[in-house]
């Protein structure tokens, strides 16, 4: 999946049309809100269009220009909030932050946001301004609901590295296998799952020391018995 904001022109239907969704993969339309202005980064507001929120993405389509539209997946939205502070922005809006694949050293105030040619890969902020500010709360709730439907994917390697939950049977099997391996070759690493050779050496030394203590106890017991005789 490509991170960040992208152009969107896949429309179906007459007039302004509606976004073409990926119904085969379960994408469903959750909310349609006309009369929404769009602000990308530091750009001037776009003419009002129609906002479509699906279970996978946020799509804004211009009502004036059928070729103009933008979309962003919920997995690319790192933050969404209601903004009513006129010092932050003159109009009440839904404020969002967007994760991008651009280099981290590209600042938000870069020329890409203020130049005539808009580089969407550098856009890290988006504001959605409904014509009726009273709709902000309901719009925010939809954002929250859809964000929960799109949790951050878990890296398989990271999951395996931190998977320390075992059943009782698994623990018994592991213990039995380690005991067999150790008895056959004491130099084998007991912590083979993470390559902890020091752990195996420590256990081996403890077993040797335990054997020495047992031998010493036997000798002391033998001396006491001899003294009584």
Helix and strand topology:
Blueprint: E1 6-7, E2 11-12, E3 18-19, E4 29-40, E5 46-54, E6 57-62, E7 69-73, E8 77-83, E9 93-98, H1 111-114, E10 125-130, H2 136-148, H3 156-161, H4 168-184, H5 197-228
Antiparallel strand pairs: 1-7, 2-3, 4-5, 4-10, 5-6, 6-7, 8-9, 9-10
Unreliable parts = 107-112, 186-197, 199-204
The average pLDDT score comes to 78
What would you report as the Rg, rounded to the nearest angstrom?
32 Å
Strand residue content? 15-25%
Q: Identify the overall geometry.
A: elongated
Widest sheet: strand order?
1-7-6-5-4-10-9-8
Quick one: how many beta strands?
Answer: 10
Provide the helix percentage: 25-40%
- Helical element count? 5
* H-E string: EEEEEEEEEHEHHHH
Classify the secondary structure makeup into a structural class.
alpha+beta
In whole angstroms, how far apart are the ends?
86 Å
Main sheet properties: 8 strands, antiparallel
Structural summary, described in words:
- The chain is α+β, with helices and mostly antiparallel strands and 229 residues long.
- Helix content is 31%, strand content 25%.
- The chain is built from five helices and ten strands.
- It has helices spanning 111-114, 136-148, 156-161, 168-184, 197-228; strands at residues 6-7, 11-12, 18-19, 29-40, 46-54, 57-62, 69-73, 77-83, 93-98, 125-130.
- The strands form two sheets. The protein has an eight-stranded antiparallel beta sheet with strand order 1-7-6-5-4-10-9-8, covered by helices on one side.
- Strand 4 and strand 5 form a beta hairpin.
- The model is unreliable at 107-112, 186-197 and 199-204 (pLDDT under 50).
């Amino acid at each position: 999946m490509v991170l960040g904001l992208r152009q969107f022109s896949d429309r179906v239907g007459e007039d302004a049309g509606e976004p073409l969704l990926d119904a085969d993969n379960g994408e469903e339309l959750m909310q349609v809100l006309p009369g929404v202005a769009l602000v990308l980064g530091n750009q001037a507001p776009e003419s009002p269009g129609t906002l479509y929120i699906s279970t996978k993405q946020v799509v804004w389509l211009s009502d004036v220009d059928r070729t103009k539209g933008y979309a962003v997946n919920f997995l690319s939205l790192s933050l969404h909030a209601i903004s009513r502070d006129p010092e932050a922005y003159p109009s009440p809006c839904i404020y969002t932050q967007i994760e991008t694949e651009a280099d981290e050293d590209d600042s938000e105030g870069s020329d890409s946001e203020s130049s005539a040619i808009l580089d969407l890969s550098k856009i890290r902020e988006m504001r959605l301004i409904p014509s009726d500010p009273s709709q902000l709360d309901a719009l925010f709730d939809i954002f929250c609901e859809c964000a929960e439907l799109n949790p951050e994917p878990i890296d398989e390697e990271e999951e395996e590295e931190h998977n320390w939950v075992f059943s009782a049977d698994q623990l018994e099997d592991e213990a039995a296998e380690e005991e067999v391996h150790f008895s056959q070759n004491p130099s084998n690493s007991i912590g083979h799952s993470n390559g902890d050779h020091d752990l195996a050496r420590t256990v081996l030394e403890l077993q040797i020391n335990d054997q020495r203590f047992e031998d010493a106890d036997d000798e002391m017991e033998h001396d006491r018995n001899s003294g009584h005789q």
